[in-house]
Amino acid sequence: MKCPFTPWRIRGGVLVLLLGLLSLEAKAGFDITDVPPFPSASRPRFIVNSANYMNEGRPEVVLSFRIPYGELFFEEKADRNGATFYEADFNLVMLLYDGNRQIGGDLWEESVRVEDEKETKSRQEEFRKVVRIPVEPGRLRAEVSVRERQSGRGSGTTWELEVPNYTKEKLGVSSLWVAECEPDDDSAIDLPPNRWVLDHSFGEPLDKLCIVGEVYRRETDSPVKLTWRVLDARRDELFRDSAVWHGGTRVPFRVRPDLSSLYLGSYIFEVEVENDGDKARRRFEFQMDETMVSLANDMEQSIDLIRLIANQDEVRKLEAAPEAQRAEAWAEFWRDRDPTPGTPDNEFKDSFFARVRHANEAFGILEPGWKSDRGRIFIKYGAADEVESRPSRLDGLAVEVWIYLELGLRFVFIDYDGFGRYELYQPGRS
Questions:
Q1: Distance CA 28, CA 41 (A)
Q2: Domains of the chain (ranges plus CATH)?
Q3: Distance of alpha carbon 158 from alpha carbon 141, whole angstroms
Q4: 104: which of 251, 261, 306, 315 is 20 to 30 A away, CA to CA?
Q5: How many CB atoms lie within 10 A of CB 85?
Q6: Residue 238 and residue 141: Cα distance in Å, rounded?
Q7: Radius of gyration of the chain from Cα atoms?
Q8: Is there a contact between 369 and 263 (Cβ–Cβ < 8 Å)?
């Protein structure tokens, strides 16, 4: 796919704009938006996240790292008795900076050894590492990288995080940790949670997802009201719920939002706490992944989406599938397009949904990006080889021309209503 930027970079640009809007609308007091780090773009691909809270009277940053065995390069070896085993060796760097000054972290020489070759391809088995770093409040930068010693492959990511001054705030909230919780689990809340979900891209199954955290306050006599909301990318509220907690200066909480009604796209999860007239807010962005696109979840929208790549016979087959067979019919549709059957990845499906995510983030104005004219063209053909743009003028509307040289295609988009919602050119319309 010829694209001058990746979907993750576009997501970052949209998020910067979103954070600007949030800061304009934020009220006085504790109000923080946590920005999840971008996943590593190159291989070996890993997942990492950070969070902060009060531990033993001062703020602490927790960095958590996970890499599936299937992402590592394993070398076949033999022990002294001639028995075969497989080993992956890599250097892991996890660092935390205050400006240019390193305030925590280190380099670790790590090894993973398995006896069965099947484990070297596993996506469920993972290497994990957690680093806890006491810090002073402020704006910090985290850097995490991996370099394999045998293959020489390397990847990394960097991101910023805000550590509030919890002790100076009348009311505050720790980071919001996404975790796996059993539906009836009412046990004590540990931070960091044992089953911390690092990736902020969610999908089926959703029944075990919960949000945990702590409220910090000075006054302890009155109850704490906690309200949680899910907002779309335009900050329109989709749904909310609330509950009341009691406790001392630290009030741990666990909420179980129902995300099953959400479709593919970007959303915001926000927690607001109230105590004696004071309010505090904390939020993070998350994505709903391609597992939310299915015949079982939303048949009409899902079929509308795949019309971009499906022929009429395939569409009719999906529409006619009995309810009990919809899941298998959907899986078969993607299996038929898998260029590497027998492997864990379906590169065609991954590329398709990467384009859908890009369309939602780059072209979503007054409607989901995949439903827009530019979004549908991008999903079907990828990035144009050439893009010509003309801003609006007194004598004409804004125009964008996408040219696909190898395909011999040219698409003209006009911003008819002036909102940036470019539509395919329609002769005679002004």
A1: 37
A2: 1-34+169-290 (2.60.40.2550), 40-163 (2.60.40.10), 291-424 (no CATH)
A3: 7
A4: 251
A5: 15
A6: 32
A7: 24
A8: no
